[in-house]
Amino acid sequence: MTDASPWAAGAAYIDGRFMPVGEAAIPITDWGYRRSDVTYDVVGVRDGAFFRLDDHVRRFRASMDSFRLRPPESDAAIKAVLHRCVALAGLRDAYVAMDCLRGRPPAGAPYHPAHARNYLAAFALPWISLVRPEVMERGAHLVVAETLRIPARSVDPRAKNFHWADLTRGQFEAHDRGADFCVLLDEDGHVTEGPGFNVFLVAGGRLATPDAGVLEGITRDSVIALCGELGLPVAVRPVAAAELRDADEIILVTTAGGVMPAARIDGRILGNDRPGPVYRRLHDAFWAKRAAGWHATPVDYAGA
Ligand code: PLP
């Protein structure tokens, strides 16, 4: 496959059909688009293997159940679609998304989501990282946004969703204040998460990450496991905004980037304005274990 191949930019699947990602489109009338009535998940591929594929598909199914979305594909069929997208694009390192869209009620049916035929969309793109290399080098600059996270009783953040108006507004606050990323609080002043990542703080050698109001991130879960292996104490508990602002280190974690450092929050410099030592240990251990095949499922390239 040459770079001129339309598949080199990525491969997609929509409702039963595979195509180069540049040809993939959804109907403009779809409620997945018009109402953000869609759920999704993202799994990474490094060195030709998925990371925690079963866990991502399990979470995707839980998100679909939460939003009462039901595509025709079984979990096994979804996994086969993801393998094929990566294989068709010929990617060794990939960002692999799966979405389930509401669709729209057919003509004549009641104008209610219960009557829509839901369907699956998926795509594989060359690997994407949330954080640019220079930000990995210096550590991200964060702000605690004025904008609050949408209450969990309105939109459950454990079901992955595109109700991103709060996170997007927070990103403009960050931009206006010369920072890279926002972190949002809940109505009680507790830390939740940022646009596409979970948050850990380090204070006095102990880590903490919010217990509620967040996506239960698969990278977060992996980092908690790593803390156990490295003998780093970690608590999953409510985290007050003041604790985050006073932390020794802040670490951001996500599929699209892994373990990422922060160096400033609300203009305050953490440590020496560079990625901290606990971040380094976790980052290095995470990628060393990944390279050694931790939770890896090799991509089935033969199936393409
Ligand atoms: N929080 C939000 C809002 C996200 O969108 C994401 C990932 O996209 C995460 C956290 C991190 O989750 P994971 O580690 O499973 O990618």
TrEMBL record:
Its EC number is 2.6.1.42. Keywords: Amino-acid biosynthesis, Aminotransferase, Branched-chain amino acid biosynthesis, Transferase. One of its GO terms (molecular function) is transaminase activity. Pathway: Amino-acid biosynthesis; L-valine biosynthesis; L-valine from pyruvate: step 4/4; Amino-acid biosynthesis; L-isoleucine biosynthesis; L-isoleucine from 2-oxobutanoate: step 4/4; Amino-acid biosynthesis; L-leucine biosynthesis; L-leucine from 3-methyl-2-oxobutanoate: step 4/4. The keyword GTP-binding does not apply. SUPFAM superfamilies: D-aminoacid aminotransferase-like PLP-dependent enzymes (SSF56752). It catalyses: L-leucine + 2-oxoglutarate = 4-methyl-2-oxopentanoate + L-glutamate; L-valine + 2-oxoglutarate = 3-methyl-2-oxobutanoate + L-glutamate; L-isoleucine + 2-oxoglutarate = (S)-3-methyl-2-oxopentanoate + L-glutamate. It comes from the Bacteria. Acts on leucine, isoleucine and valine. Belongs to the class-IV pyridoxal-phosphate-dependent aminotransferase family. This is Probable branched-chain-amino-acid aminotransferase. It comes from Methylobacterium crusticola. The gene is dat_1.
